[in-house]
Write a structure and sequence with these properties.
This protein is mainly alpha-helical. Helix content is 74%, strand content 0%. The protein has 5 helices and no strands. It is elongated.
Amino acid sequence: MSDEAPFDPRPARLTVAAALTAAEGVVIACFGLVSLVMLFIGDPDGFVQALTMALTVLALAALPLAAARGLWLLRRWSRGPALITQLLALPVGWQMAQNGGVWTAGGAAIGVVALVVLGCLVTPVSAAALGVGPRDA
C-alpha cells in the first residue's frame, strides 16, 4: 500500500467554479420550467410570447450547464462560456438588487457568485489546469 495521496489534477478553485456555474444553470433551467408550467396553468397576455420566453430561458440554461461540465472535466473550451456567463450575471444581479426587498438579496447573491467564479477562473492555477496560458511566440 502506498502512503501517497492520489493526484487530483483539478484545483479546488476549478471545482468551486464548476459547482457554482452548474448551480446557476440549474436555477436558470428551473426558472424556465416554472415559466413553461405557468404558461399552461396561468393566463398569459400573449401565449406565443410567453412560450418563446420560457423556451429561450431553457436554451440559455444550456450555456452554464455545458460550461460547468467542461470545467469539471478540465476542458479548455469551457473557460470562455463560464466567463461569459458570469459577465452576463453581474448586470442581472445589479438590476435585481435595485428593486428592493427580497430582490436585493437575490441580486446580491447572483453578484457574489459571479464574482467568486470570475475570481476562481482567472487565477494562474486554474488557467494552467485548463491548458490556458501565454501563447508561444
